[in-house]
Amino acid sequence: MKIFKFGGASVNSVDRIRQLPAILRQYPGEKILVVVSAMGKTTNALEKVAEAFYEGHKEEALRLFQQVKDSHLTTAKYLLVQNYLALEAQLRDFFTEAEWLLHDKPVRDFDYYYDQVVCIGELLSTSIVSAYLAESGIGNQWIDVRDIFRTDANFRDAVIDWEVTGRKVKEEVLPLFGEDDLIVTQGFIGATSDNESTTLGREGSDYTAAVFANLVDAEGQTIWKDVVGVMNADPKQFPDAVILPELNYDEVIEMAYYGAQVIHPKTIKPLQNKGIPLYVKCFLDASLPGTVIHNKSVHGLPPIIVLKHDQVLVQLHSTDFSFVGETGMARLYDLLGQVRVKPNLIQSGAVSIQVCLDDRPARIERLALAAADLFEVQVERGLTLLTIRHYNADVLQRLTAHRQEVLRQQTWETVQVLMR
Ligand SMILES: Nc1ncnc2c1ncn2[C@@H]1O[C@H](COP(=O)(O)OP(=O)(O)O)[C@@H](O)[C@H]1O
Ligand SMILES: N[C@@H](CC(=O)OP(=O)(O)O)C(=O)O
Protein backbone atom coordinates (compact mmCIF):
# COMPACT_ATOMS: atom_id res chain seq x y z
CA MET A 1 0.00 0.00 0.00
CA LYS A 2 1.13 3.54 -0.75
CA ILE A 3 0.39 6.81 1.03
CA PHE A 4 0.14 9.97 -1.08
CA LYS A 5 -0.10 13.50 0.26
CA PHE A 6 -1.26 16.42 -1.82
CA GLY A 7 -0.56 19.76 -0.15
CA GLY A 8 -2.51 22.99 -0.37
CA ALA A 9 -0.46 24.14 -3.35
CA SER A 10 -1.39 20.98 -5.31
CA VAL A 11 -5.12 21.58 -4.91
CA ASN A 12 -5.20 25.39 -4.96
CA SER A 13 -7.17 25.76 -8.19
CA VAL A 14 -9.64 24.03 -10.48
CA ASP A 15 -6.81 23.41 -12.97
CA ARG A 16 -4.60 21.72 -10.42
CA ILE A 17 -7.39 19.49 -9.07
CA ARG A 18 -8.08 18.47 -12.70
CA GLN A 19 -4.56 17.01 -12.85
CA LEU A 20 -5.15 14.57 -10.00
CA PRO A 21 -6.85 11.78 -12.01
CA ALA A 22 -3.92 11.60 -14.47
CA ILE A 23 -1.45 11.23 -11.60
CA LEU A 24 -3.50 8.54 -9.88
CA ARG A 25 -4.08 6.60 -13.12
CA GLN A 26 -0.33 6.01 -13.26
CA TYR A 27 -0.77 3.54 -10.39
CA PRO A 28 -3.41 1.11 -11.67
CA GLY A 29 -4.51 -1.63 -9.28
CA GLU A 30 -2.49 -0.18 -6.37
CA LYS A 31 -4.06 0.49 -3.00
CA ILE A 32 -3.44 4.15 -2.19
CA LEU A 33 -4.48 6.23 0.79
CA VAL A 34 -4.54 9.89 -0.24
CA VAL A 35 -4.11 12.63 2.37
CA VAL A 36 -5.13 16.10 1.22
CA SER A 37 -4.57 19.53 2.81
CA ALA A 38 -6.86 22.54 2.66
CA MET A 39 -6.92 24.31 -0.72
CA GLY A 40 -4.24 26.99 -1.18
CA LYS A 41 -4.31 29.53 1.63
CA THR A 42 -7.65 28.40 3.12
CA THR A 43 -6.09 27.64 6.51
CA ASN A 44 -4.82 31.23 6.75
CA ALA A 45 -8.29 32.52 5.79
CA LEU A 46 -9.94 30.35 8.44
CA GLU A 47 -7.43 31.55 11.04
CA LYS A 48 -8.71 35.09 10.37
CA VAL A 49 -12.30 33.87 10.86
CA ALA A 50 -11.40 32.34 14.23
CA GLU A 51 -9.56 35.50 15.30
CA ALA A 52 -12.45 37.81 14.36
CA PHE A 53 -14.90 35.55 16.19
CA TYR A 54 -12.75 35.43 19.32
CA GLU A 55 -12.31 39.22 19.34
CA GLY A 56 -16.11 39.49 19.41
CA HIS A 57 -16.46 40.66 15.78
CA LYS A 58 -19.16 38.15 14.89
CA GLU A 59 -20.33 39.90 11.70
CA GLU A 60 -16.76 40.16 10.42
CA ALA A 61 -16.15 36.48 11.21
CA LEU A 62 -19.27 35.49 9.29
CA ARG A 63 -18.31 37.75 6.38
CA LEU A 64 -14.84 36.21 6.18
CA PHE A 65 -16.33 32.74 6.43
CA GLN A 66 -18.73 33.57 3.59
CA GLN A 67 -15.67 34.18 1.36
CA VAL A 68 -14.35 30.71 2.19
CA LYS A 69 -17.78 29.22 1.44
CA ASP A 70 -18.09 31.05 -1.87
CA SER A 71 -14.66 30.05 -3.12
CA HIS A 72 -15.29 26.37 -2.34
CA LEU A 73 -18.76 26.40 -3.93
CA THR A 74 -17.31 28.05 -7.04
CA THR A 75 -14.54 25.45 -7.29
CA ALA A 76 -17.08 22.65 -6.82
CA LYS A 77 -19.33 24.12 -9.54
CA TYR A 78 -16.47 24.25 -12.04
CA LEU A 79 -15.39 20.69 -11.32
CA LEU A 80 -18.60 18.72 -10.89
CA VAL A 81 -21.57 18.10 -13.17
CA GLN A 82 -23.57 14.97 -12.21
CA ASN A 83 -22.51 14.88 -8.55
CA TYR A 84 -22.65 18.61 -7.87
CA LEU A 85 -25.81 18.62 -5.78
CA ALA A 86 -24.66 15.76 -3.54
CA LEU A 87 -21.31 17.52 -3.05
CA GLU A 88 -22.98 20.86 -2.31
CA ALA A 89 -25.07 19.18 0.41
CA GLN A 90 -21.90 17.73 1.96
CA LEU A 91 -20.10 21.11 1.84
CA ARG A 92 -23.12 22.84 3.38
CA ASP A 93 -23.06 20.39 6.31
CA PHE A 94 -19.51 21.49 7.07
CA PHE A 95 -20.43 25.18 6.66
CA THR A 96 -23.19 24.65 9.20
CA GLU A 97 -20.76 22.95 11.59
CA ALA A 98 -18.65 26.13 11.68
CA GLU A 99 -21.48 28.67 11.54
CA TRP A 100 -23.30 27.04 14.42
CA LEU A 101 -20.26 27.88 16.50
CA LEU A 102 -19.69 31.36 15.05
CA HIS A 103 -23.18 32.43 16.12
CA ASP A 104 -22.30 31.71 19.75
CA LYS A 105 -20.18 33.78 22.14
CA PRO A 106 -16.66 32.54 22.97
CA VAL A 107 -16.50 31.04 26.44
CA ARG A 108 -13.47 28.76 26.04
CA ASP A 109 -9.81 29.28 25.06
CA PHE A 110 -8.98 30.69 21.65
CA ASP A 111 -7.08 27.54 20.67
CA TYR A 112 -10.25 25.45 21.05
CA TYR A 113 -12.22 27.68 18.67
CA TYR A 114 -9.28 27.88 16.31
CA ASP A 115 -9.33 24.12 15.83
CA GLN A 116 -13.12 23.88 15.45
CA VAL A 117 -13.03 26.49 12.66
CA VAL A 118 -9.73 25.73 10.94
CA CYS A 119 -10.39 21.98 10.53
CA ILE A 120 -13.19 22.82 8.07
CA GLY A 121 -10.60 23.63 5.36
CA GLU A 122 -9.45 20.03 5.00
CA LEU A 123 -13.01 18.67 5.24
CA LEU A 124 -14.07 20.91 2.33
CA SER A 125 -11.05 20.22 0.11
CA THR A 126 -11.23 16.44 0.53
CA SER A 127 -14.98 16.41 -0.16
CA ILE A 128 -14.37 18.25 -3.44
CA VAL A 129 -11.39 16.07 -4.43
CA SER A 130 -13.21 12.83 -3.60
CA ALA A 131 -16.35 13.82 -5.54
CA TYR A 132 -14.30 14.97 -8.53
CA LEU A 133 -12.27 11.75 -8.64
CA ALA A 134 -15.46 9.70 -8.46
CA GLU A 135 -16.99 11.69 -11.31
CA SER A 136 -13.77 11.14 -13.30
CA GLY A 137 -14.24 7.38 -12.92
CA ILE A 138 -11.81 6.90 -10.03
CA GLY A 139 -13.87 5.19 -7.34
CA ASN A 140 -12.79 6.14 -3.84
CA GLN A 141 -13.86 6.10 -0.22
CA TRP A 142 -13.93 9.45 1.62
CA ILE A 143 -13.34 9.29 5.34
CA ASP A 144 -13.53 11.88 8.09
CA VAL A 145 -10.13 11.44 9.70
CA ARG A 146 -11.55 12.85 12.95
CA ASP A 147 -13.26 9.46 13.39
CA ILE A 148 -9.83 7.79 13.13
CA PHE A 149 -7.11 10.08 14.49
CA ARG A 150 -7.63 10.21 18.26
CA THR A 151 -5.66 12.99 19.95
CA ASP A 152 -5.35 14.68 23.31
CA ALA A 153 -7.03 18.05 23.89
CA ASN A 154 -3.90 20.14 23.35
CA PHE A 155 -5.66 22.28 20.76
CA ARG A 156 -3.53 23.59 17.86
CA ASP A 157 -0.73 21.15 18.66
CA ALA A 158 -2.58 17.97 19.53
CA VAL A 159 -0.72 14.75 20.26
CA ILE A 160 -1.87 11.53 18.63
CA ASP A 161 -2.95 8.55 20.71
CA TRP A 162 -1.12 5.92 18.68
CA GLU A 163 -2.83 2.95 20.26
CA VAL A 164 -6.44 4.05 19.65
CA THR A 165 -5.58 5.48 16.23
CA GLY A 166 -3.75 2.28 15.21
CA ARG A 167 -6.72 0.16 16.21
CA LYS A 168 -9.16 2.37 14.29
CA VAL A 169 -6.96 2.34 11.20
CA LYS A 170 -6.96 -1.47 11.21
CA GLU A 171 -10.64 -1.90 12.03
CA GLU A 172 -12.22 1.02 10.16
CA VAL A 173 -9.86 2.17 7.40
CA LEU A 174 -8.17 -0.90 5.94
CA PRO A 175 -11.46 -2.79 5.30
CA LEU A 176 -12.50 0.07 2.97
CA PHE A 177 -9.88 -1.11 0.47
CA GLY A 178 -12.28 -4.02 -0.12
CA GLU A 179 -14.63 -1.49 -1.78
CA ASP A 180 -12.20 0.71 -3.76
CA ASP A 181 -8.45 0.96 -4.35
CA LEU A 182 -8.41 4.55 -3.19
CA ILE A 183 -9.18 6.21 0.14
CA VAL A 184 -9.30 10.01 0.41
CA THR A 185 -8.92 11.73 3.75
CA GLN A 186 -7.79 14.91 5.49
CA GLY A 187 -4.35 15.82 6.75
CA PHE A 188 -3.65 18.02 9.76
CA ILE A 189 -6.78 17.30 11.82
CA GLY A 190 -8.01 14.83 14.43
CA ALA A 191 -10.42 14.69 17.34
CA THR A 192 -10.45 14.09 21.08
CA SER A 193 -12.35 11.25 22.73
CA ASP A 194 -15.15 13.84 23.25
CA ASN A 195 -15.34 14.37 19.47
CA GLU A 196 -13.91 17.86 19.65
CA SER A 197 -11.87 18.69 16.57
CA THR A 198 -8.13 19.22 16.99
CA THR A 199 -5.25 20.20 14.70
CA LEU A 200 -1.73 18.79 14.72
CA GLY A 201 0.27 22.00 14.15
CA ARG A 202 0.50 24.14 11.01
CA GLU A 203 1.53 22.29 7.86
CA GLY A 204 0.80 19.03 9.66
CA SER A 205 -0.60 17.08 6.72
CA ASP A 206 2.81 15.58 5.90
CA TYR A 207 2.78 14.23 9.45
CA THR A 208 -0.74 12.76 9.09
CA ALA A 209 0.44 10.91 5.99
CA ALA A 210 3.51 9.61 7.86
CA VAL A 211 1.37 8.36 10.77
CA PHE A 212 -0.83 6.45 8.32
CA ALA A 213 2.28 5.08 6.57
CA ASN A 214 3.69 3.87 9.88
CA LEU A 215 0.43 2.29 11.03
CA VAL A 216 -0.25 0.39 7.81
CA ASP A 217 3.43 -0.45 7.14
CA ALA A 218 3.20 1.31 3.79
CA GLU A 219 5.74 0.49 1.10
CA GLY A 220 6.30 4.23 0.63
CA GLN A 221 4.97 7.73 1.17
CA THR A 222 4.89 10.29 -1.63
CA ILE A 223 4.47 14.00 -1.02
CA TRP A 224 3.34 15.76 -4.19
CA LYS A 225 4.65 19.33 -4.39
CA ASP A 226 4.84 22.27 -6.77
CA VAL A 227 8.65 21.91 -6.87
CA VAL A 228 10.83 19.30 -8.60
CA GLY A 229 11.79 17.74 -5.25
CA VAL A 230 13.74 18.72 -2.16
CA MET A 231 16.27 21.34 -3.18
CA ASN A 232 19.33 22.74 -1.45
CA ALA A 233 17.41 25.97 -0.76
CA ASP A 234 13.93 27.38 -1.26
CA PRO A 235 13.83 28.08 -5.02
CA LYS A 236 11.58 31.09 -4.31
CA GLN A 237 14.45 32.69 -2.35
CA PHE A 238 17.34 31.22 -4.37
CA PRO A 239 16.52 30.78 -8.07
CA ASP A 240 19.78 28.85 -8.60
CA ALA A 241 18.80 26.16 -6.04
CA VAL A 242 19.47 22.59 -7.21
CA ILE A 243 17.53 19.39 -6.63
CA LEU A 244 18.84 16.84 -4.13
CA PRO A 245 17.97 13.48 -5.75
CA GLU A 246 18.68 11.45 -2.61
CA LEU A 247 18.82 12.29 1.09
CA ASN A 248 18.81 10.32 4.27
CA TYR A 249 16.34 10.74 7.10
CA ASP A 250 18.92 12.48 9.33
CA GLU A 251 19.61 15.17 6.79
CA VAL A 252 15.93 15.92 6.23
CA ILE A 253 15.04 15.97 9.91
CA GLU A 254 17.87 18.49 10.43
CA MET A 255 16.75 20.61 7.46
CA ALA A 256 13.15 20.63 8.71
CA TYR A 257 14.28 21.39 12.26
CA TYR A 258 16.24 24.43 11.06
CA GLY A 259 13.13 25.66 9.26
CA ALA A 260 13.25 24.35 5.67
CA GLN A 261 9.60 24.74 4.69
CA VAL A 262 9.56 21.77 2.39
CA ILE A 263 8.66 18.98 4.86
CA HIS A 264 7.07 19.18 8.29
CA PRO A 265 9.67 18.34 11.00
CA LYS A 266 7.48 15.67 12.65
CA THR A 267 7.13 13.69 9.41
CA ILE A 268 10.40 11.81 9.47
CA LYS A 269 10.23 9.88 12.75
CA PRO A 270 7.19 7.67 11.91
CA LEU A 271 8.81 6.81 8.57
CA GLN A 272 12.34 6.28 9.88
CA ASN A 273 11.06 4.03 12.66
CA LYS A 274 9.67 1.61 10.07
CA GLY A 275 12.25 2.21 7.31
CA ILE A 276 9.57 3.55 4.94
CA PRO A 277 11.01 5.61 2.06
CA LEU A 278 9.68 9.14 1.50
CA TYR A 279 9.42 10.39 -2.07
CA VAL A 280 8.98 14.07 -2.87
CA LYS A 281 7.61 14.37 -6.40
CA CYS A 282 6.54 17.19 -8.66
CA PHE A 283 2.82 17.53 -9.01
CA LEU A 284 3.25 19.59 -12.19
CA ASP A 285 5.33 16.92 -13.96
CA ALA A 286 4.95 13.44 -12.47
CA SER A 287 7.55 12.00 -14.87
CA LEU A 288 10.37 13.83 -13.05
CA PRO A 289 12.29 11.59 -10.62
CA GLY A 290 11.99 13.88 -7.56
CA THR A 291 13.80 13.15 -4.30
CA VAL A 292 13.96 9.90 -2.34
CA ILE A 293 14.61 10.00 1.40
CA HIS A 294 15.76 6.81 3.10
CA ASN A 295 18.09 5.19 5.65
CA LYS A 296 21.21 4.92 3.49
CA SER A 297 24.00 7.44 3.82
CA VAL A 298 24.33 10.03 1.09
CA HIS A 299 27.67 11.68 0.37
CA GLY A 300 28.78 14.78 -1.48
CA LEU A 301 25.85 17.01 -0.59
CA PRO A 302 26.11 20.66 -1.68
CA PRO A 303 25.64 23.43 0.93
CA ILE A 304 22.01 23.32 2.08
CA ILE A 305 20.62 26.74 2.93
CA VAL A 306 17.69 27.70 5.14
CA LEU A 307 16.79 31.36 5.53
CA LYS A 308 14.25 32.37 8.19
CA HIS A 309 12.96 35.93 8.34
CA ASP A 310 10.97 37.62 11.13
CA GLN A 311 13.24 36.40 13.86
CA VAL A 312 13.35 37.87 17.36
CA LEU A 313 16.38 38.00 19.62
CA VAL A 314 15.53 37.92 23.33
CA GLN A 315 18.53 38.89 25.44
CA LEU A 316 18.39 37.96 29.11
CA HIS A 317 20.91 39.47 31.50
CA SER A 318 21.14 38.52 35.15
CA THR A 319 19.91 41.43 37.28
CA ASP A 320 22.47 41.15 40.10
CA PHE A 321 25.46 39.85 38.13
CA SER A 322 25.03 36.31 39.49
CA PHE A 323 25.88 33.48 37.09
CA VAL A 324 23.10 32.31 34.80
CA GLY A 325 24.18 28.68 35.33
CA GLU A 326 21.93 25.63 35.26
CA THR A 327 19.17 27.34 37.26
CA GLY A 328 18.83 30.20 34.80
CA MET A 329 18.89 27.83 31.81
CA ALA A 330 16.38 25.47 33.43
CA ARG A 331 14.08 28.41 34.18
CA LEU A 332 14.38 29.62 30.58
CA TYR A 333 13.50 26.20 29.13
CA ASP A 334 10.61 25.99 31.55
CA LEU A 335 9.29 29.36 30.32
CA LEU A 336 9.76 28.39 26.67
CA GLY A 337 7.68 25.26 27.35
CA GLN A 338 4.99 27.27 29.11
CA VAL A 339 4.57 29.79 26.27
CA ARG A 340 5.02 27.02 23.70
CA VAL A 341 7.80 28.51 21.58
CA LYS A 342 10.74 26.59 20.18
CA PRO A 343 14.11 28.35 20.32
CA ASN A 344 15.86 28.47 16.95
CA LEU A 345 19.19 29.28 18.58
CA ILE A 346 20.39 29.64 22.19
CA GLN A 347 23.73 30.94 23.36
CA SER A 348 24.69 31.43 26.98
CA GLY A 349 27.48 33.33 28.71
CA ALA A 350 28.38 33.91 32.34
CA VAL A 351 25.63 36.39 33.15
CA SER A 352 23.51 36.43 29.99
CA ILE A 353 21.56 34.21 27.62
CA GLN A 354 20.57 35.02 24.06
CA VAL A 355 17.61 33.27 22.46
CA CYS A 356 16.47 33.53 18.86
CA LEU A 357 12.80 32.71 18.19
CA ASP A 358 10.15 33.00 15.50
CA ASP A 359 8.18 36.22 15.97
CA ARG A 360 4.88 35.19 17.55
CA PRO A 361 4.15 38.55 19.23
CA ALA A 362 1.73 37.39 21.97
CA ARG A 363 3.99 34.53 23.02
CA ILE A 364 7.17 36.63 22.94
CA GLU A 365 5.45 39.21 25.13
CA ARG A 366 4.43 36.53 27.65
CA LEU A 367 7.96 35.14 27.62
CA ALA A 368 9.54 38.58 28.11
CA LEU A 369 7.17 39.43 30.96
CA ALA A 370 7.74 36.15 32.78
CA ALA A 371 11.53 36.31 32.26
CA ALA A 372 11.61 39.84 33.70
CA ASP A 373 11.23 38.27 37.18
CA LEU A 374 14.77 36.90 36.88
CA PHE A 375 16.54 38.85 34.19
CA GLU A 376 16.86 42.20 32.51
CA VAL A 377 15.15 41.56 29.20
CA GLN A 378 15.81 43.13 25.81
CA VAL A 379 13.91 42.23 22.67
CA GLU A 380 15.05 42.93 19.10
CA ARG A 381 12.79 42.15 16.15
CA GLY A 382 13.12 41.96 12.37
CA LEU A 383 16.22 39.74 12.21
CA THR A 384 17.10 36.98 9.75
CA LEU A 385 18.48 33.59 10.70
CA LEU A 386 20.68 31.91 8.12
CA THR A 387 21.48 28.22 8.52
CA ILE A 388 23.88 26.42 6.18
CA ARG A 389 24.51 22.68 6.41
CA HIS A 390 27.69 21.41 4.71
CA TYR A 391 28.90 24.98 4.43
CA ASN A 392 32.06 26.28 2.90
CA ALA A 393 33.79 29.63 3.28
CA ASP A 394 32.59 30.90 -0.10
CA VAL A 395 28.91 30.36 0.42
CA LEU A 396 29.06 31.68 3.98
CA GLN A 397 30.83 34.83 2.82
CA ARG A 398 28.40 35.34 -0.06
CA LEU A 399 25.29 35.02 2.10
CA THR A 400 26.49 37.17 4.98
CA ALA A 401 28.10 39.95 2.92
CA HIS A 402 26.61 43.41 3.60
CA ARG A 403 24.78 42.10 6.66
CA GLN A 404 25.51 42.91 10.26
CA GLU A 405 26.13 39.76 12.25
CA VAL A 406 24.39 39.54 15.63
CA LEU A 407 25.16 35.98 16.67
CA ARG A 408 26.91 32.96 15.19
CA GLN A 409 27.00 29.27 16.11
CA GLN A 410 29.15 26.82 14.22
CA THR A 411 29.90 23.09 14.18
CA TRP A 412 31.92 21.26 11.50
CA GLU A 413 28.65 20.49 9.73
CA THR A 414 26.30 23.43 10.35
CA VAL A 415 26.68 27.17 10.73
CA GLN A 416 23.93 29.49 11.94
CA VAL A 417 24.19 33.26 11.67
CA LEU A 418 21.64 35.68 13.03
CA MET A 419 21.81 38.89 11.00
CA ARG A 420 20.40 42.41 10.90
N1 LIG B 1 14.55 23.10 0.32
C1 LIG B 1 13.44 23.26 -0.39
N2 LIG B 1 13.20 22.50 -1.47
C2 LIG B 1 12.06 22.64 -2.19
N3 LIG B 1 11.09 23.54 -1.90
C3 LIG B 1 11.26 24.32 -0.83
C4 LIG B 1 12.44 24.22 -0.02
N4 LIG B 1 12.33 25.10 1.00
C5 LIG B 1 11.17 25.72 0.85
N5 LIG B 1 10.50 25.26 -0.25
C6 LIG B 1 9.20 25.76 -0.69
O1 LIG B 1 8.21 24.80 -0.40
C7 LIG B 1 7.13 25.07 -1.28
C8 LIG B 1 6.21 23.88 -1.26
O2 LIG B 1 5.73 23.73 0.04
P1 LIG B 1 4.27 24.22 0.41
O3 LIG B 1 3.94 25.53 -0.24
O4 LIG B 1 4.14 24.08 1.90
O5 LIG B 1 3.48 23.12 -0.35
P2 LIG B 1 2.20 22.36 0.07
O6 LIG B 1 1.27 23.38 0.65
O7 LIG B 1 1.74 21.82 -1.23
O8 LIG B 1 2.62 21.30 1.03
C9 LIG B 1 7.80 25.32 -2.60
O9 LIG B 1 7.01 26.08 -3.46
C10 LIG B 1 9.09 26.02 -2.18
O10 LIG B 1 9.01 27.42 -2.37
N1 LIG C 1 -3.71 23.21 5.78
C1 LIG C 1 -2.79 23.09 6.88
C2 LIG C 1 -2.06 21.76 6.87
C3 LIG C 1 -1.01 21.55 5.81
O1 LIG C 1 -0.18 20.66 5.92
O2 LIG C 1 -1.02 22.31 4.72
P1 LIG C 1 0.09 22.22 3.50
O3 LIG C 1 0.21 20.78 3.10
O4 LIG C 1 -0.52 23.06 2.42
O5 LIG C 1 1.39 22.77 4.00
C4 LIG C 1 -1.87 24.31 6.91
O6 LIG C 1 -1.90 25.12 6.00
O7 LIG C 1 -1.14 24.45 7.88
UniProtKB/TrEMBL annotation:
Return one Gene Ontology term, BP aspect.
homoserine biosynthetic process
Gene3D superfamilies named in the record: Acetylglutamate kinase-like (3.40.1160.10), Aspartokinase, catalytic domain (1.20.120.1320)
Report one GO cellular component. cytosol
Q: Known EC number(s)?
A: 2.7.2.4
Which biological pathway? Amino-acid biosynthesis; L-threonine biosynthesis; L-threonine from L-aspartate: step 1/5; Amino-acid biosynthesis; L-lysine biosynthesis via DAP pathway; (S)-tetrahydrodipicolinate from L-aspartate: step 1/4; Amino-acid biosynthesis; L-methionine biosynthesis via de novo pathway; L-homoserine from L-aspartate: step 1/3
Keywords, ordered alphabetically: Amino-acid biosynthesis, ATP-binding, Kinase, Nucleotide-binding, Transferase
Q: Which reaction does it catalyse?
A: L-aspartate + ATP = 4-phospho-L-aspartate + ADP
Recorded GO terms, molecular function?
aspartate kinase activity; ATP binding
Q: Which residues form the Aspartate/glutamate/uridylate kinase domain?
A: 3-281
Supply the InterPro entries for this chain. Answer: AceGlu_kinase-like_sf, Asp/Glu/Uridylate_kinase, Asp_kinase, AsparK_Bifunc_asparK/hSer_DH
SUPFAM superfamilies reported in the protein's UniProt record: Carbamate kinase-like
Source species, domain of life: Bacteria
- One short Pfam name that applies is AA_kinase
Q: Show the NCBIfam families listed in the entry.
A: asp_kinases (TIGR00657)
- Family, as annotated: Belongs to the aspartokinase family.
Which protein are we looking at? Aspartokinase
Organism source for this protein? Puia dinghuensis
